[in-house]
Design brief:
Rossmann fold, four-stranded antiparallel beta sheet, alpha/beta, seven-stranded mixed beta sheet, globular, Alpha-Beta Plaits, 2 domains
């Protein structure tokens, strides 16, 4: 049984509430929360969270409190026993991002010269390519390759399905790749998706290593460092918090690809990485989301 709480408000109010939720002291880490557009013309969005049990009044109040003094009406509803992530991704159309074509098993591969095809089934992990942040990262990785970036050690933090690590491997096939996520389900997803796409799993060159870790807190992540390409498609709060760790685990001329942040959060994220010696090289805006390619200032 799944329950959902929904607060509907203007987009800016929802974005501010989502920022507030990223503060661990204000929102439980075990309750999923996300924003979704409701009415494009009126710029109305919804802040939604999912619970395994009927929400308590205190949980409804906590959601409303994220909006400060402009507390919206909270709607509570019981959902059918459905795997909503799988359901939402079934029959979703393929996406094309740079040289990459990503589809679910419901669709055939593109099989065109110069196109790298990935089949990522609906699963309990984020990153099928449909979200603007994931497709934007695919586009930016392709641009990195076009502009001569060389990668030998690659870490994909918050990897989800492993798609971005797979894409990086397609571009730099002789590198070593870690696909790390805090969720143990994601490690299983990386292995099964790698097998389905003919990608070797292991610790050698050209292989992807699945890993369960919080941020950079893992012996293998430390041993593989320094990285010359680090990818993190997570949320603005963790991106800011992890900036010193990412900077400490990368080479003097490294590249960092960040996403999962709203355009309104970009300034704070860039400021955190600027303090660690990284500067903006390129950025891509997709909808309300920002994808950042940062380069370390040599000697910074």
């Amino acid at each position: 049984m799944t329950w959902k709480l929904t607060a509907t408000a203007p987009r800016l109010a929802v974005e501010a509430a989502l920022d507030a939720a990223e503060d661990e002291d204000r929102w439980p880490a075990d309750i999923a929360i996300a924003a979704a557009e409701v009415d494009e013309a009126a710029d109305i969005w919804a802040l939604e969270c999912w619970l395994e049990r009927k929400p308590r009044p205190a949980q409804e109040k906590a959601l409303g409190d994220l909006f400060g003094g402009n507390r919206p009406r909270i709607k509570s509803e019981q959902l059918p026993d459905t795997d909503w992530l799988t359901h939402s991704q079934q029959n979703t159309p393929p996406i094309r991002a740079g040289r990459f074509y990503v589809h679910t098993p419901d669709f055939p591969p593109l099989t065109q010269p110069g196109v790298t095809d990935f089949c990522i089934p609906a699963a309990q992990a984020f990153g099928t390519g449909q979200h603007a942040t994931t497709s934007g990262c695919l586009t930016m990785l392709d641009l990195m390759k076009q502009q001569g970036v060389i990668a030998r050690e690659v870490a994909d933090i918050g990897s989800g399905t492993g798609l971005l690590a797979f894409a990086a491997r397609a571009l730099w096939p002789r590198a070593r790749f870690i696909a790390s996520d805090i969720d143990p389900l994601c490690a299983d997803a990386v292995v099964s998706n790698a097998q389905a796409n003919g990608i070797p799993v292991g610790i050698g060159r050209g292989q992807v290593t699945p890993l369960v870790a919080t941020g950079m807190d893992d012996d293998l992540l430390e041993w593989r460092a320094p990285y010359d390409l680090l990818i993190a498609n997570i949320l603005a709060g963790p991106l800011i918090e992890l900036a010193p760790d990412f900077a400490g685990a990368t080479t003097p001329r490294a590249h960092i690809l960040l996403s999962g942040l709203l355009i309104t959060q970009e300034r704070a994220v860039r400021s955190a990485y600027r303090a660690c010696g990284y500067r903006l090289h390129r950025r891509l805006h997709q909808g309300d989301w920002s994808i950042l390619w940062l380069r370390r200032r040599f000697g910074g």
